[in-house]
């Protein structure tokens, strides 16, 4: 699948595309107020949600139910990002613990071998 095809699939999956028209480049036009926004769907979400962010002016003509829906989408995405971050951190912690445990086992095996060498030496020389 090419990047263009993948982009199209992702575009279709984002519910906010129904509230805008895709223009050339990374521009979209709000279907409520007809304002053209640079930055694509991400900036449109902040425009429609009326959340002050990223220098985007809020839409003055968007319906209340759309505002709520877009806010929920933004919130879900932020929660998902937080979950992914926590997951990556936990995986890193587990890798460190595993690495530590393997090192500990290796040391215990080496100490055990050294102990056997000493025991054999003393048995042979007594």
UniProtKB/TrEMBL annotation:
All residue ranges annotated as the BED-type domain in the record: 11-66
MF terms (GO), sorted A to Z: DNA binding; zinc ion binding
Coiled-coil segments on the chain, per record: none
Stored InterPro entries: Znf_BED
Pfam families (alphabetical): zf-BED
Highest taxon in the source lineage: Eukaryota
Keywords for the protein's UniProt record, in alphabetical order: Metal-binding, Zinc, Zinc-finger
Keyword Isomerase recorded: no
Protein name in the entry: BED-type domain-containing protein
């Amino acid at each position: 699948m090419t990047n263009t095809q993948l982009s199209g699939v992702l575009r279709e999956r984002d519910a906010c595309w129904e509230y805008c028209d895709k223009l050339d480049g990374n521009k979209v036009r709000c279907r409520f107020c007809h304002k053209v926004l640079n930055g694509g769907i991400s900036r449109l979400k902040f425009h429609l949600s009326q959340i002050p962010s990223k220098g985007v002016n809020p839409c003055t003509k968007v319906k209340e139910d759309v505002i709520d829906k877009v806010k929920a989408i933004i919130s879900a995405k932020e929660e998902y990002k937080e979950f992914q971050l926590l997951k990556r951190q936990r995986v890193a912690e587990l890798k460190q613990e595993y690495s530590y445990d393997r090192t500990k086992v290796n040391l215990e095996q080496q100490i055990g071998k050294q102990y056997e060498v000493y025991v054999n030496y003393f048995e042979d020389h007594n």
